[in-house]
Amino acid sequence: MNSRDQRAVLTDRSYWDDTWQSVETPKLIDLSDRSLRNHGTIALHDYFDSVLDSLSPRVESLIELGCAQSKWLPYFSNVHKLTVCGIDYSELGCARARELLDRAKCEGEIIHADMFHPPDALRARFDIVLSMGLVEHFGDTASAISACADLAKKGGIIITLIPNLSGLIGFCQRWLDRSVYDKHVPLDREAVAAAHRACGLSILRSDYLLSANFAVLNHPHLRPKIINRLVRGLSIVATGCVWTVECMGINIPPTQFLSPYIACVAMKTDA
Questions:
Q1: Which strands form 261-268's sheet, in the order they lie side by side?
Q2: Domain containing 44: what range?
Q3: DSSP conformation class of 182
Q4: Tens digits of residue pLDDT in 108-161
Q5: Whole-model pTM above 0.70?
Q6: Is 173 a domain residue?
Q7: How many structural domains is the chain composed of?
């Protein structure tokens, strides 16, 4: 039994290769686009901006674990002027991450490797270790977070972002496509923070992010196709309605019930 089996991983390499094969490479992030459809991306930018602004001294390097076809590595390179690196065990995911860096004319290193067995040169090297939609795929959440923290310097920051399956999004995902839901461990904000503390990390902040985003629902196996498309359309319309209210100046605070994401920011305080 390998280390991934022991950590009760809920996905495997073929699952992710099939996933990336079935979707298009995402567009690069455009912060000048203030249209309704880009509202969620702008909200995440604002969050990352606030996190980085709060750090002292200024950080210089970032690695993203689970970086397959990441549009965020070019973002951190171009917007925050960080030296970026990514690691993923899907060869196709790595190829697409490199493609996005090249498209954005960014320098960056993409490494095809298992995060539990990274090259020794990556250990304790980075100011920021980022994961987005990664640690919730392991039955032992703390072991995945520990693998992330292993790549951070002493005093480095671990930023973990996962889908919020403890509220309405989780209920809808379970009802629409249980097979996708079962690839995740449903965690709330307190459980995510507790998993970081179990790794000896100091919590700087733990948040529900964004008012709503029903478009994060993933239901590839929902049939017939016309129902699948109808559900997708309704998800986008419902999300647009909430975001329109926000854009009118009416604040809708993030909550466990509606927010699509949970984010935790923690510091590695020991070597």
A1: 109-112, 83-88, 61-65, 126-132, 152-163, 261-268, 201-209
A2: 3-163+185-211+261-268
A3: T
A4: 999 999 999 999 999 999 999 999 999 999 999 999 999 999 999 999 999 999
A5: yes
A6: no
A7: 1
